[in-house]
Amino acid sequence: MKPLIIQRFYYFYNMNVAKTLRVSLLLILVSSALTVTAQKKKKAKKEFERSPKQELVYDDKAYLPAIRTVQFYPDGKENRLPVYVLGSAELLKLSFDDLRGDMRNYYISIEHCNQDWTPSRTSVLDYIEGYNEDRIENYSASKSTFQPYTHYAINFPTPYIKPKLAGNYLLKVYEDADKERLILTRKFYVLNNLVNTSAVIQSSYQTANRLKNQKLNISLSTGLTINNPQRDLTVLVKQNQRSDNQMSLQNPSFVGNNAFKYNQSETFDFKGNNEFRFVDLRSFRVASERVQQIIPDSVTKVILYTDEDHHGETYAGTYDENGLFFIRNRDLNDDELEADYADVTFSLKTTQNIQGNIYLVGGFNQFQRTEENKLVFDEQQQIWSVTVKLKQGLYDYEYVVEDPSGNVVTDAFSGTHFQTGNDYQILIYNRRMGTYWDELVGFAESSINNKN
After folding, report:
1. Three-class SS string for the chain?
2. What value, to the nearest 5°, has the Cα angle with vertex 273 and ends 271 and 276?
3. Cα separation of 276 and 239, whole Å?
4. What confidence tens digit (pLDDT) does each residue in 146-186 have?
5. Which pLDDT score, from 0 to 100, does residue 186 have?
6. 29 pLDDT more than 80
7. Do the beta carbons of residue 182 and residue 54 sit within 8 Å?
8. Which residues of 330-357 are buried (b: 16+ CB within 10 A; e: fewer)?
9. pTM over the 0.90 mark
10. Residue 43 pLDDT more than 70?
11. Is-contact 90 84, C-beta < 8 A?
12. What is the reported pLDDT for 42?
């Protein structure tokens, strides 16, 4: 029999071992529970972070505030209207930034539309060669920027998606191959060039508008058999690629020998408006001429000098890019990945009694009027202002008024002049006998350039 002191030693030793084992087991159980909880939270977080489902809109639209700086143009022809010639080797380039800054699986598909951007009745097999889905595989994270973002780009057509029918198309970008999780839609055009198009720009036939407006007389010639041009032909003209400033016509003033003229006195008579306002945001270190103050912060803030109301003033020729924008970076080398974002404050001073809402528009927001780019009145400073998030670059812009009836007044703060330099895009649509969709069969651009 062991001495009492040894028995007590073994007794306390066993008690401590058991206690240690119990504590270790408890720690293991707690750790496992925390791990499972964390994994569940992680999965829930991942699911929550997916782009939400959206309702499709047949228009140029970014469905999330994080989607910025969308560009879509023929590769090598920056910010031209995205027109793809059927069967051509020339591609269109789509690019955009996602300010959420992570890497996501984005896919694209396309849909054929009529000339008025309603869905056409053609089937996918009729207008696509191949499949109608492809993944965006070209993406990179931003470098050395206060605002993190991921830059995505894809050339179109892709090896898997090739349009085989001319007309209007809507390109859709969505997450995880789920077409309801839209992040972006963009209009583009597929051309089967069967109509020769030319235009002459002159002053308005209307006496009151001769010094204000620019009128287009358009001539068409084609080998197509068009028995009823009033029904089967539509001519659409855009000023500076703007969907908010366009006109269409179906009735020609002259028909003969496969030639058609559209030169009625009251048709295609556009306000000349004025040259666009301009700001150079290529550097956030050195202020350019229009920049009043640069405030470094977690996101850079840029305050521009207040714009004056030019309504009623005489025309003064200045150089602009007809409303377009270009991403450029003077601070670092890479325009796409090293260009940063800033919150840029625009302001306007006017004594006009405004009936309606004032919007800041340009190619950077597709000339669309939304809450994000609506100006508000500052009672203290007696100016209208708005702050928008822009990437480093060169920007044309202007202010427009939407009146209570929904009409857009493009010259409210600029005046309108015949001498203004503008670009016009002319699109010709044909609905052939026995078909139920519109084909784009002609495209041309015409310009009036009076820039110094």
Report:
1. CCCHHHHHHHHHHHHHHHHHHHHHHHHHHHHHHHHHHHHHHHHHHHHHHCCCCCCCCCCCEECCCCEEEEEEEECCCCCCCCEEECCCCCCEEEEEEECCCCCCCEEEEEEEECCCCCECCCCHHHHEEECCCEECCEEEECCCCCCCCEEEEEEECCCCEEECCCEEEEEEEEECCCCCCEEEEEEEEEECCCEEEEEEEEECCCHHHCCCEEEEEEEEEECCCCCCHHHHEEEEEEECCCCCCEEEECCCCEEECCEEEECCCCCCEEECCCCCEEEECCCCCCCCCCEEEEECCCCEEEEECCEECCCCCCCCCCCCCCCCEEECCCCCCCCCCCCCEEEEEEEEECCCCCCCEEEEECHHHCCCCCHHHECEEECCCCEEEEEEEEECEEEEEEEEEECCCCCEECCCCCCCCCCCCEEEEEEEEECCCCCCCCEEEEEEEEEECCCC
2. 150
3. 13
4. 999 999 999 999 999 999 999 999 999 999 999 999 999 99
5. 98
6. no
7. yes
8. beeeebbbebbbbbbbbbbebeeeeebe
9. no
10. no
11. yes
12. 45
Residue type, 242: R
Task: Answer positive or negative: Cα dihedral of 199, 428, 81, 345.
Answer: positive
Spatial strand order of the sheet with 138-141 comes to: 67-74, 92-98, 150-156, 138-141
CA angle 143, 302, 386 (to 5 degrees): 120
Q: Find, among 145, 153, 148, the residue nearest to 331 by Cα.
A: 145
**Residue 152 near residue 134, CB atoms below 8 Å:** no
User: Is the separation of the CB atoms in 285 and 220 below 8 Å?
Assistant: no
- Token look-up 């085989």 returns 164
CA distance 417 to 24: 84
Do residues 399 and 385 touch, judged by C-beta distance below 8 A?
Answer: no
C-alpha–C-alpha distance, residues 256 and 254, integer Å: 7
Q: Which residue in this structure is represented by tokens 């696509």? A: 128
Distance CA 200, CA 450 (A): 15
Q: Is 415 left (phi over 0), alpha (psi -120 to 50) or beta?
A: left
Spatial CA neighbour of 335 closest among 390, 393, 396: 393
**pLDDT exceeds 80 at position 18:** no
Q: Band the pLDDT of 341: cuts 50, 70, 90.
A: very high
Instruction: Please report the sign of the dihedral spanned by the C-alpha atoms of residue 102, residue 103, residue 109, residue 110.
Output: positive
Tokens coding 228? 């009823």
